[in-house]
Structures are given as C-alpha cells and as structure tokens.
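User: We ran a pulldown and think these components assemble together. Before we commit to crystallization trials, I'd like a predicted model of the whole complex to look at. Sequences follow.
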Amino acid sequence: GAVVSQHPSRVICKSGTSVKIECRSLDFQATTMFWYRQFPKQSLMLMATSNEGSKATYEQGVEKDKFLINHASLTLSTLTVTSAHPEDSSFYICSAKNYFRDLDTQYFGPGTRLTVL
Amino acid sequence: DAKTTQPNSMESNEEEPVHLPCNHSTISGTDYIHWYRQLPSQGPEYVIHGLTSNVNNRMASLAIAEDRKSSTLILHRATLRDAAVYYCILKGAGSYQLTFGKGTKLSVIP
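Assistant: Here's a predicted model for the assembly, 227 residues in total across the polymer chains.
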C-alpha cells in the first residue's frame, strides 16, 4: 500500500512551452502533497506544499506564477511549469501524506525528469 | 530545523552489515529521527524513524544514542539493491516538512 505515481516519467520540451506533471496517490487519500526539485548531484529541495482544496504554500525563492500547483482532489495534484526554460530542467518529485493512516511518513513518487531544450 | 551531519560516502561488501552514522548534536527533545533512501533516478523511500528507543523493521534497524546526539542506521545484510543515498532527517513532532541534506552515498561491492 501507499503507492504514489507520477506522469510522465520523462518529458522533453522546447523553451517557452508549458509542461504539466501529475502526481497521484493510488491507494490512499492524500490530504497533503509536496513538490520537490532535484538538480544533478544535489539533494531534494522542497518547492511547495499543497493541501486538498486550498492554495499551495510556496517556499522562498519559488515563483508561484511559474510553478502552478493544483490539488483538486484527495488523490491528484498537478505541477505545471509555465514558459519553461533550460534552467528549469530538473528532476521533479512529489510526495504525499495521509494523516488518517500514518502521521509520520511521506510517500514519494518515482519522479519526472524534465529536459527543456 | 536542527542540522544533521553524515559522511559523504561509504562502501560495503555485499552480504555484510552496514552501519550508517548520523550526528545531530542540536536535536531538540521533540525531534524525531527519520531515515529515507533514494535509489538512482528514483524518488526517496521511507526506511525507518524513531524518537528515543532503538527501532527495528523489515528494512533496517535504528540505534539511537542515549543522549540522542547521534544515531546509526543498520542494514543487517547489504545487497546490491541497497546501493543508494541515505538521508538522516530530523523532524519536529508538529512539523510535516522534510528537509533533505546531502546524505550518504552507499556503494555495495559484489
């Protein structure tokens, strides 16, 4: 149990286009989802936290108008990278929590590798 | 958040035990010690967590020093599939965020 999926696993796009990444909790309801970014040979950096039905909370330095997050249901959150540029190329990872099941654990998706040409 | 210090890398022979250390001298009384690991090109995976007492699960054991200023993740028998970056993270009881450091890259030698 506690499986989180992401789609797509890889995406290559041209500079200036927008890319949407989906994060789904497959067998539990995710009251809170998190989005991380990881550059090569670096650690994960939290970008934003989203609670179902409310606006996401962004970490300092993350542009909310560039990285649009929607958490419209208890099993789905989406991250849209708008007007992507090569510097946005990174490994994007989501995670989910279920407060009704396990207060202390985050369940991570497999990640989405974005390459912007 | 209180900081953790881990060695950058460690090596282990396959089928031998591995002890991954973590120092957290500024830990507060309500901080839990969490361990996650990240296999290459994958998202992190929960390993184990504890507060004061040693903990065991099917993946690993967590030994926590009496003064809680350090802890050790123990893999009882390393396999090639255990090659990953291991992150030691402190999380307050009321906090929901995880702050990842650089972790320890574990290499397992066949």
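The longest strand of chain A covers residues 90-98. That may be worth checking against your pulldown data before setting up trials.

User: Thanks, that helps.
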